[in-house]
Every structure is written in C-alpha cells, then in structure tokens.
Design a protein that fits this description.
The structure holds two protein chains of two kinds. Chain A is of the alpha/beta class. In chain A, 30% of the residues lie in helices and 24% in strands. Chain A has six helices and nine strands; from the N terminus they run βαβαβββαβαβαβαβ. In chain A, strands 1, 4, 5, 6, 7, 8 and 9 form a seven-stranded mixed sheet that branches. A two-stranded antiparallel sheet of chain A has the order 2-3. In chain A, a hairpin with a 2-residue loop joins strand 4 and strand 5. The two termini of chain A are 17 Å apart. By secondary structure, chain B is α+β, with helices and mostly antiparallel strands. Chain B has two domains: 91 residues, no CATH class; 99 residues, Arc Repressor Mutant, subunit A. Chain B is 32% helix and 19% strand. Chain B is built from eight helices and eight strands. The longest helix of chain B is centred in the C-terminal third of the chain and has 13 residues. The two termini of chain B are 28 Å apart. Classes of the chains: A alpha/beta, B alpha+beta. At the A-B interface, strand 4, helix 4, helix 5 and helix 6 of A face strand 1, helix 1, strand 6, helix 7 and helix 8 of B. The structure holds guanosine-5'-triphosphate and magnesium ion (MG). Guanosine-5'-triphosphate (GTP) binds next to helix 1 and strand 3 of chain A.
C-alpha cells in the first residue's frame, strides 16, 4: 500500500518555487511552465508556472512525500485552496531581490492562513546574490512573528532546500504533532479516501 | 542578478540599513524620469554619490548633498549590484547614512513621507532594531529621541509611551518615524498577518475552528521523524 504526505511550496511570481522543487525531488519535476504574458513578467523571466509543480521524495517503500508548488501569479489563486487542503505544512518562498513582491507575498500568506491552519516557514530565496535582502529584513517587512522561522535559501542548491524542509518538519513537530498515529497519511490509491482520522 | 525595485517598495533609508546589515559593497543606481543618481557603498558605508540630470548629464549634486537630494525621491526606481571594485574608491562622503537621513528630515516637516509603507499610529508597537550599532556612527540623538528609544526597548506602543512620558502624541509619532527611518527601532510584530501559529503556537490546531475542517489532522511523531531522517539523508 502506498501513502502520501503533502508539503506545499508557495510564493509570489518568480520567487523560485519551480527551482526549489526541482532541486530536491526524486523524480523529474512535472512542471507546467508556459510563456509569460505581460511585459513586466517577461522582463523577469520567459516562463511561468500556470498549473503546478510537483515533485516527490520517497520516505519508505510505502510512504512518499509530495511537494506541490503553487502557480505564482495571483490570477491563478483559485488553485491555492485545493493545493493547500490536507498539507502537513508549507513553505512561503520570497524573492529577496524583489521588494516589489512583498505586498503580494503578504496577501498570499494571509490567504493561506485562512485556507489552512498547517504550520509554515518563510524562505528568503536567492541568497546567493550578494545584493539580496537579508532574512532579518524580509521578516520585518513581511511582519513575520518571532515564532515562525525565516530562513536563508538558495533554491538552486539542494543542500539549502534540504535545510528549509528540515526546518519546516521540525516546526511542524513543535507545532502540533502529539500522537504516534499515522493519522493524516493519505492513501494515494484511487479507490481510497483522504484521511483515516 | 541584483536587488531591484522602486523606492515605493523600499525606501532609501531602508536600503542604507540593509547595506549596513550586510555589510554590503556595491553600486546603487537610482533613476526617475529626468535624473539619475549613483551611490557607491563600501562595507555598508556610503563613500561617494552624485546626481545627473537631462540628456547632457549635468551634475546637479554630489557627495553628501547628492545623498540628501536623493532622500527626497519617493518614486524612483533602483538597482543595487554587488561590486567589489568599490573597495578601492576614495571616500568623498563626510557623514554616515544615519546622519544624512536625520539631516534630510530636519530639512522637512513631514518625516513620514520618507517611509511611505510604514504608517506610524498610536497602536504601533516598537522594538529596538536588531542591527548592531555602527561604532563609527556619527548619529547624535536629542533627549526626546533617547526617551522614545528607551521605551522601544520594552516593546511598548506609541500610545503607551505617550502615557508614560506625557509627550504629545503628534510629537511622539514624528520622532518614532525618524527613528524608524534611520533604523534604530523597528515595528514589532503587531503588524503580523493573523496567523494561526501566532495565536496558538505549540498547540494542536483547534478542530472546532472552521479552518480546521479541511485541514489534515496533526501528523504522527514517528512519521515526522521518518521524514526528517529521510530528508536529512538527501
Ligand atoms: N540566483 C538565484 N536565482 C534563482 C534562485 N531560485 C530561482 N532562481 C531564478 O529565479 C527565476 C524564477 O525561478 P522559478 O523557479 O521559475 O520561480 P517560480 O516561483 O516557479 O515562478 P512562477 O512559477 O512563474 O511563479 C529563474 O530564473 C530561476 O533560475 C536562487 O536561489 N538563486
Ligand atoms: Mg514556477
């Protein structure tokens, strides 16, 4: 029997979500990037994710961790709810080189806390650029409370992505895990239902 | 790659603060319709600056005056690029960034215009900035600025500080805006998004809460440990 657990990677346009999942996934990431449409978007990158990124990490022969990336642009935010449902936690990726997207990121974080009570960490991405804003500044500008980790991140480096995921898992552990029951393992067999709890 | 945006997204005084936090070395370019400005930053310190205007690139301000000039811009675009070659550049700017930001405010009546996205209200809760103060800092604070600073250490709101110091509210708000702009204090997480984790950190999500209806129940510890082990091995 195969089980799945879900972690969502979200963030504003071009924050690095596709890159993040690509760096850590066991499988070739199924992405759905299409040519960007507006001039502003095109200035930043030529492709954007319109549906979702998807990667997996095999935990045990019967358990897989699924990573889902949300489409970055607000015009696709109707998909967030579906993606966030049932996730054990999520990563909010922030482009540390583009303060113009901070307001959108705040909006996105607000929506996510409405959609799901799952714990999250914030990853200040693109820290390989020496000009990048430091995580401490990102925390202040986004108004992230002290108990939520804000981590430096380089989505293109596997080791960095790994550290972010470990922090998220530790954060989930301290936040709500109190039982040994495998109670929100989702059966990914098509015939079974979401939760056994 | 570079740090890019508009001063509407991030004020010049915030940029100076970030340079100092790094500390960063590089070139900051600012541009609006008719003018272009350049500030050279070495190890977080502003070393040289100038502003040119029009197609003939006439220099309209240089050194300290150029920084003061650009502190008046609120909508310009900016690009900051790391550039180690600035290290060898002669220091032309006499004052440090904090002094220049304060001096710019002294020349104006409304310091809040310098920090458009951070509106100070009586309910704004303050904290000391985590940035270690620069030993070479030439910033000199007045008595009232020191009073506010000492209360910010206690995470008080502007209203609470007014009550304790009997300082008029408009004056307190003005001084708080100044101290925010030069990076000595921060807004405490009173502006935080209403996260579930804030309200109930370290507790299980309340299943009676409407948000919990579609959420996954808490994950078993043994499962999380297995995932943690696996991810650590990656
Ligand atoms: N320097 C640097 N560039 C990065 C990093 N992560 C992503 N990028 C670049 O940033 C751009 C956007 O990355 P994507 O992974 O496509 O971002 P996204 O969040 O999936 O974007 P959308 O799906 O369009 O919202 C690409 O050019 C990446 O190569 C990083 O850690 N450092
Ligand atoms: Mg993408």
């Amino acid at each position: 029997m195969k089980h799945m657990l879900k972690i969502v990677v979200t963030g504003s346009f071009a924050a690095g979500k596709t890159q993040f999942i690509r760096s850590i996934s066991d499988i070739d990431v199924v992405d759905t990037d299409f040519k960007t449409t507006t001039n502003e978007e095109r200035g930043l990158k030529s492709e954007t994710t319109v549906a979702l990124d998807f990667g997996t990490i095999v935990i045990t022969p019967s358990l897989k961790l699924y990573l889902f990336g949300t489409p970055g642009q607000v015009r696709f935010d109707y998909m967030w709810e579906e993606l966030a449902t049932g996730c054990i936690g999520y990563v909010v990726l922030v482009d540390s080189c583009r303060p113009a997207y901070f307001a959108e990121t705040q909006h996105l974080m607000h929506r996510f806390t409405e959609i799901t009570p799952a714990p999250f960490v914030v990853a200040a991405n693109k820290q390989d650029d020496p000009a990048a804003l430091p995580p401490m500044y990102v925390r202040r500008r986004l108004g992230i409370p002290a108990e939520i980790p804000v981590l430096p991140c380089v989505a293109s480096e596997r080791s960095s992505v790994k550290l972010v995921l470990i922090s998220l898992l530790k954060h989930i552990t301290s936040y709500g895990a109190t039982s040994d029951a495998e109670d929100n393992v989702v059966d990914d067999a098509p015939s079974s239902h979401a939760s056994s709890a | 790659m570079a740090l890019e945006g508009s001063l509407e997204d991030m004020s010049l005084s915030d940029l100076f603060q970030v340079f100092r936090m790094g500390p960063k070395t590089g070139v900051l370019l600012l541009y609006n319709r008719h003018e272009r400005g350049v500030i050279y930053v070495n190890q977080g310190l502003l070393v040289d600056a100038f502003v040119v205007s029009g197609p003939e690139r006439k220099v309209v301000a240089s050194k300290d005056e150029a920084v003061l000039y650009m502190l008046d811009w609120t909508t310009a675009g900016f690009i900051f690029r790391h550039d180690p070659s600035v290290v060898g550049r002669a220091v032309q700017i006499k004052h440090d960034a904090e002094w220049l930001v304060l001096e710019n405010m002294r020349r104006h009546t409304s310091p809040q215009t310098a920090v458009p996205y951070r509106k100070v209200t009586l309910d704004t809760r303050l904290q000391l900035s985590p940035i270690p103060s620069n030993t070479e800092s030439q910033v000199s604070l007045g008595v009232d600025q020191w009073r506010i600073l000492s209360h910010a250490a206690n995470h008080q709101t502007v209203r609470e500080i007014c009550a304790e110091t009997t300082m008029p509210e408009d004056k307190a708000i003005r001084i708080v805006a100044e101290l925010l702009a030069i990076g000595l204090i921060d807004v405490s997480s009173a502006i935080a998004p209403p996260t579930k984790a804030t309200a109930t950190s370290n507790s299980r999500p309340d299943p009676s809460h409407p948000d919990a209806r579609q959420s996954a129940p808490p994950v078993g510890r043994s499962l999380l440990s297995a995932i943690l082990r696996r991810v650590s091995e990656l």
